[in-house]
Write a structure and sequence with these properties.
Layout (H helix, E strand, L loop, with lengths): L1 H26 L18 H6 L14 E4 L9 H16 L6 H20 L4 H4 L17 H4 L5 E7 L3 H18 L4 E8 L5 H15 L3 E6 L11 H12 L1 H10 L5 E4 L6 H14 L3 E10 L2 E4 L6 E2 L22 H8 L4 E5 L5 E3 L39 H24 L2 H10 L2 E4 L33 E4 L11 E9 L6 H9 L28 E3 L11 E3 L5 H4 L1 H4 L1
Parallel strand pairs: 1-4, 2-3, 2-5, 3-4, 6-13
Antiparallel strand pairs: 5-10, 6-7, 6-10, 8-9, 9-13, 11-12, 14-15
Helix pairs in contact: 7-8
GO molecular function: glycosyltransferase activity
Organism: Lactarius akahatsu
Keywords: Glycosyltransferase, Signal, Transferase
Length: about 575
């Protein structure tokens, strides 16, 4: 009897200890070498695996999926009056009628309806997006995107805000519309407020409330500027810093919970929800690494293509500063194929883009270790040091997006080389590449100062010129042409239109697509898929910011050689 009693006690103690260990494992996150960073995403616990939750982004089960950092908690001038009003409304009109779960549910539904009314009546969203003319019947087919939605993919929405309260509510409305299509557990919203000095902080409070009520996972974060002295700010470095911060939840969810997103949607300015869905379809159909919309700004009574600092056609040339109503021979892309496809409203290949709202495949980029970066040898004009001389072939000090594009081309070339290595000995492969070498001329543009034509988002861009490119550099030998390497699939979808405050989205749509939305006889996959992919150009127009001074710092232009083989040189050895 005594032995049996002791055995039962030992068994109970063992069960208690095992249960405690299981609970500890299930409710605690696993430490990692990167815990010094801001980590709110908890690692998988035992109960996560046992339960097998239907949705990996279920905010009701995982509270850490909704977080807010860096909130400005300073007392507002009329904060006490606002609080008193809220308390009075709650005590007199809300609380007395909540008598049980049923009425509480009705209250939530009422709040949801109020949110939808508030957002749908703001700006362009409700009044114009559903009725805007688009080619190929995009808006007329009720179930045009059912196949996309039925795949149950996860999407990461990134927004970087810097004193841009004039369209944040519209962006929030677009997110709400995407949530209605995909469901709240299919999106994660990362909203970064970078040193805003307008009412952005208040509007992020609104965003937090809306996303919380809808059950959408989010991280809203406010950070201060990199430097208090505007003269010491280097805009490309700030740009890279902001984007990488906005992507932190993407990496944390992958590292700590093994969650992979199908696409990253970077919201910029204002873009209609259907245009975003269309761009995702273009991305899927072409297995594209990046697909950009087109960024238009109103300038002197007409619309011009805006984000020319970050966009280059497949020949490496800048887009023309063309009007939305321009004739086919004056369209933004300068290459013949791109211009022809643009005129038919079809996606076309580019060397680099980031014109407005764009979609990135993280499997080909962020999950491969590519992040945003900037040149490091710029000059700080706030110091007394003399301006350093730079070699003609020095790296281009352009935008962080341009660095991202070049890193993407290099990554694709590496993947191709790795596959060749698996089939052929490295020495034989290298000899074969060098046998295909050719001469290439690298032209350079004169170093002209940027007068900063402040138009839309493009007041960081050089003015366009149709003057022939002057050759002042002689010739440079490229040992291996870029056309031999695997291409990066970067596209522009001209039907995904981005606008800004004060721009008539309706008039722009009429300028670009007419009144009938003609389809040029193209249907099915033909309107989405590219049959042929070009290699990277052997040179490109470099518009660079060599010194500090913020976004409006003077920029210069030149045309350097671009050699993927040189970038791969160390890898090939």
């Amino acid at each position: 009897m005594a032995f049996g009693f002791r055995r039962r006690n030992l068994t109970r103690i063992f069960i208690l200890i095992s249960a405690a260990i299981l609970i500890r494992l299930a409710t605690s996150s696993h430490p990692s070498s990167s815990d010094t960073k801001l980590h709110e995403i908890q690692g998988h616990g035992v109960l996560d695996f046992v339960h097998g939750s239907e949705s990996v982004l279920d905010t009701r089960r995982y509270g850490f999926l909704q977080s807010r950092f860096g909130r400005d908690d300073k007392e507002d001038l009329m904060g006490d009056i606002v609080r008193n009003g809220v308390d009075d409304y709650w005590e007199r009109f809300q609380k007395p009628y909540i008598v049980g779960p049923d009425t509480a549910q009705m209250d939530v539904q009422s709040a949801m309806s109020s949110i939808e009314m508030l957002l749908s009546l703001n700006g362009w969203v409700a009044a114009h997006c559903p009725t805007l003319v688009r080619p190929f019947g995009q808006n007329s087919h009720e179930h045009a995107f059912d196949d996309l939605i039925s795949k149950n993919h996860l999407y990461f929405v990134g927004i970087v805000i810097h004193s841009a309260d004039h369209f944040l509510v519209d962006q929030l409305a677009v997110i709400v519309q995407l949530v209605k299509r995909f469901g709240p557990s299919s999106l994660f919203v990362s909203m970064l407020d970078y040193d805003s000095s307008d009412s952005t902080a208040t509007l992020t409070d609104l965003s937090e409330a809306v996303l919380t009520l809808l059950g959408v996972p989010y991280r809203i974060r406010r950070v201060s500027g990199m430097t208090e002295d505007p003269a010491a700010a280097y805009y490309p470095a700030e740009e890279a810093y902001m984007r990488n911060l906005a992507l932190e939840p993407l990496r944390e969810l992958y590292e700590r919970r093994k969650i992979k997103f199908h696409r990253v949607i970077w919201l910029k300015g204002f873009t209609c929800p259907n245009d975003i869905l269309e761009t995702i379809k273009v991305s899927d159909a072409n297995d594209a690494a990046m697909v950009c919309g087109m960024d238009w700004a109103e300038h002197n009574g007409f619309f011009i293509f805006s984000d020319r600092w970050r966009t280059r056609d497949i020949n490496g040339d800048q887009f023309r500063q063309s009007k939305s109503s321009s004739k086919p021979d004056a369209v933004p892309p300068r290459d013949e194929v791109g211009a022809a496809r643009y005129s038919q409203h079809l996606p076309f290949q580019v060397f680099c883009c980031e014109s407005g709202t764009h979609v990135v495949d993280p499997a080909q980029t962020y999950y491969k270790g590519i992040s945003y970066r900037a040149g490091a040898d710029f000059h700080n004009v706030s110091t007394t040091d003399a301006r350093p001389e730079r070699a003609p072939d020095a790296p281009c000090l352009d935008s962080s997006q341009a660095w991202f594009c070049r890193d993407l081309w290099l990554q694709k070339a590496r993947e191709g080389v790795q596959e060749m290595d698996a089939r052929n000995p490295p020495a034989r492969r290298k000899r074969a590449l060098e046998d295909d070498s050719k001469e290439e001329v690298a032209h350079r543009l004169p170093n002209d100062a940027d007068p900063d034509a402040n138009a839309g988002s493009d007041y960081d861009a050089m003015p366009d010129s149709d003057v022939p490119v002057e050759d002042v550099s002689g010739s440079t030998r490229l040992s291996v042409p870029n056309s031999l390497f695997r291409p990066a699939r970067i596209l522009v979808n001209p039907r995904c239109v981005t606008t800004y405050a004060g721009v008539s989205h309706t008039q722009l749509a009429l300028d670009l697509f007419g009144t009938e939305g003609e389809d040029h006889g193209i249907d099915g996959a033909g309107k989405y898929v590219l049959d042929d992919w070009e290699g990277a150009p052997d040179s490109f127009v470099c518009q660079e910011q060599r010194q500090t001074g913020g976004r409006k710092a003077t920029k210069t232009q030149r045309r350097p050689t671009y050699s993927i083989h040189e970038d791969l040189h160390n890898y090939l050895q």
